[in-house]
Batch of 4 targets.
Target 1
Amino acid sequence: MNFPKLWIAGITVAVLALSGTYLWREGIPSSVIKSASNTPPAQPVPVTTGVVKVQEFANSRVGLGTVQAYNTVTVKVRIDGEVQKIAFREGQDVQVGDVIAQIDPRLYEALLHQAEADKARDQARDQALLANAKLDLERYSKLVVKEYATRQSVDTQEALVAQYRRRCRRRKPEPGMILDLLDRWPVERARTLLVGDKSSDLVAGEAVGIRSFLFPGGNLCDFLKPLLRQIA
């Protein structure tokens, strides 16, 4: 057996162990060794139990960006004109019946006055034509008895009187024009309003069973709002 070799190997291992211990002690500062020795041991993570429930979880984010409406509406007008007033602010909530813009009314006021003048002229003319046709019918009726006029002339004059009478029934205060509109548009009379600026308008509306109101002037939208709420 090679006892000398075993002794040599044992001595070599002992020397290496002593050298490593020395280097370990000399190479690491004492402050590090002390702090490592004073470090408390790691604590175990606590585990708790609870009841499962549904609740709100606050989640907020802060950032810069732009806001865009989810729903948009394009408002189109049925008349042309210069916009004089915008009655809402950007982002404001509006309700049905609210005024959002005002168009210059002067052009349409002039057209209204012209239409009123034409109506008065036509009404006077129709009344005069009807009165004259009635007189002619009365004359022809007397003449046909004495055989001074033909029966055809009397029939023609009766048709002319009926024609002028129909035209006059479409002139307020006669309700003929309103009756024509009710026949064309099947609306509920109980939920229908008539707004006029003359007493003849009210007479025509009441003759067909429609609630009628006299417009005193001013803002028509403000005048209509409470009336529309009554039939809503």
Note: DSSP finds seven helices and four strands in the chain.
Target 2
Amino acid sequence: MLTGSRPTRLFIILVCIVFQMTGIQLTGLSGQNAGHEKPSGTPVTEERPDGIKVYRIGNGVQPPRAIKTPLPNFAKVGHKKITGALAIEGYVGADGAFHDAVIVKSPDNSLDADILAATKKWTFNPCTLDGRPVNCRMLMELDLHLN
């Protein structure tokens, strides 16, 4: 049984659905190969200004698996109803941490700081290429319903 405020319970349910349905593979990879297709070419990478190479999932790059995803503190929401799409972009490092999180879309900007603070505590089994951990780009999209 879930405990806590109703907004927290609803967010927990959403996060659990996203992360349990094959470790972010269903809704966490907008427009990207979710790791179910056979490799068909060279892995796609982007080089960041700081020199870090970040892969896109697919073509042999396997998706990460969530280990720890603490929830944001929604205490300041109170009894306010918030519904809408939430999109968070960043990359899962070879170290398993979620880096450079950015809110791409938010139903209420007052939640953004708390959501970003929570992503700094997320840990994953990293993406892999040929069995070795690599950095990979992630776009997670959620439908947020806080009542």
Note: The two ends are 18 Å apart (CA to CA).
Target 3
Amino acid sequence: MFAILPAWGLFNAAAMLVGQNLGAQQPDRAARSVWLTGTYTMAFLAAVAIVFVAAAEPLVAIFNDDPAVLAVGTQALRVISYGYIFYARGMVMMQAFNGAGDTMTPRGRTWSASGAVRSRSPGSSPAWRRLVRTASSGRWCCRRHCWRSS
């Protein structure tokens, strides 16, 4: 997890660059900033993925040396690492929407992607469905205060 933290800085830089360039009335420059930031982030996470795939077994062995855990952990690290490049592009794009002031698009895409997985999982309980309904209605409660988001 710590290996991909620099990518979070690049994700946030994309949002800042879009907001700054749109504020300066330069939408073409904002779009170029997003594509460049996405390319740099993909290159960084590709390098991380190469290291994780190549050295998966020694990396997992740092945490546990049980052969069964080592086999499953090595396979899991490799499978997860293959998605890093796509994760990089997607997160830069979502942060670009945030920087442009559009928070509904990233929220909708995130909820639809995670909701499709969670609603079909065996652990989707009535309490989880109630939480999703409450969150999607825009009503948020915190102790004694409740408010609606617009």
Note: The longest strand covers residues 139-142.
Target 4
Amino acid sequence: MAATQVSADRRPDVAVMPGGVAPRPLSLTPVAWIARDGMKLVDWVVQGRKLGVMGRSAAWWIGDWLRYGNLEYGEKYMRAARITGYDVQSLMNMVYVASHFDASRRRETLSWSHHSEVAALPREQQERWLDRASDRTLAVRCLRDELRRARRRAVAEQAEAQASGEAQAPVAPPEPPLDATLAHAEPAADDHSVVCPDCGRRFEPDEPEGQEGTEGQTGPEGPENAAPAAIAAVA
């Protein structure tokens, strides 16, 4: 069979085929997905599935790739930033999350950002929270909210124990709540919480920048903001 030849004008959507010119189904650029007119529905669906896998998997792939490079060739964050186009902090986040979840423990039904929310917890707690997120189809924001509530509850219990004269103990890692009563409870008169449109759970809006402590300060979904601050130790 004759090999396909790219046309002389090197247009990305046209290829010279034996017997004539046939348009390619689509072309990709760094900033665009371009389909030809008349793409069949089945082809559009296939493309969507491929793009979905690529989007959900990219952070895992890059994290594993950079972990390998660091182990084999020494720390390569600056060089990896030039190669991939990602900033160093984003790459550190990807490596941090990848290093805390072996491939066998990564949930295909949950996003990379779900995993990043619990990466700093002990392994048993990671599994419990991921189970909860999967069973209840929690959006990342809802999972983050429940983690914050659990942390605050643990801090409040410690403060109460100290006030009652009991021996001081370190704050335990947050446990998933036994039920969703807190999340679905009717708001109090002075409650400023809002309901997540993705999963119906209630959460408190973020405090203005500079007024909230380091606890739970996680930015928008994505590797550039999702991993804990402790990733600095990876560098």
Note: The two ends are 51 Å apart (CA to CA).
